[in-house]
């Protein structure tokens, strides 16, 4: 998922990990942290109980990046750290409800989080910016407020073929 998101959506190098959004009340079960981190400003290690066994001597260099290191691999760095965003029901009720629903379905209170932009472009600021970014990337669906847009239902000729032509750094 990390590689897919980086190459098809973010248009950046495939090795870059993403930040985990986690229910605030579950954060200490998944990460070695006791406080809150609502703005992804803090890093914490993934708890040992959530790590996967890795044969350290079997991979070298960039091959280490392809090894799944935890139950949340797209958000776990090679050193088992993550830039955590805790989500509180009081300050972010809608996102908290989404994470809660995801946890009910999967047993995992963590979702991948990233800024809504592609390499070389500013962060999306309007619904129109979001729709244009959606059409010109490999996203399958876009949720804006109470609306859910599916890629296969969009008129692809509306996509701007000249956008997002940046190669990796």
Question: What this model shows, in words?
Answer:
With 169 residues, the chain is an alpha+beta fold. The chain has two domains: 19-113, Carbamoyltransferase, C-terminal domain (DHBP synthase), CATH 3.90.870.20; 115-169, no CATH class. The protein has four helices and six strands; from the N terminus they run αβαββαβαββ. The chain has helices at 2-10, 27-30, 93-106, 127-135, and strands spanning 19-23, 42-45, 81-87, 110-113, 141-144, 147-150. The strands form two sheets. Strands 2-3-1-4 form a four-stranded mixed β-sheet. The protein has a two-stranded antiparallel sheet with strand order 5-6. The longest helix is centred in the middle third of the chain and has 14 residues, at 93-106. The radius of gyration is 17 Å and the shape is globular. 22% of the residues are buried. The mean pLDDT is 84.
Explain briefly what this protein structure is:
The protein has 169 residues and is of the alpha+beta class. It is 21% helix and 17% strand. It is globular, with a radius of gyration of 17 Å.
Task: Please give the structural blueprint.
Elements: H1 2-10, E1 19-23, H2 27-30, E2 42-45, E3 81-87, H3 93-106, E4 110-113, H4 127-135, E5 141-144, E6 147-150
Parallel strand pairs: 1-3
Antiparallel strand pairs: 1-4, 2-3, 5-6
Give descriptors for this structure.
single chain; 169 residues; alpha+beta; DHBP synthase; 2 domains; 4-stranded mixed sheet; two-stranded antiparallel sheet; 4 helices; 6 strands
**What is the helix content?**
10-25%
What is the overall number of helices? 4
Rounded to an integer, what's the Rg over CA atoms? 17 Å
Distance between the termini: 20 Å
How many domains would you count in the coordinates?
Answer: 2
Strand ordering within the main sheet: 2-3-1-4
CATH architectural category of the largest domain? Alpha-Beta Complex
CATH domain fold name of the largest domain: DHBP synthase
CATH class division of the largest domain: Alpha Beta
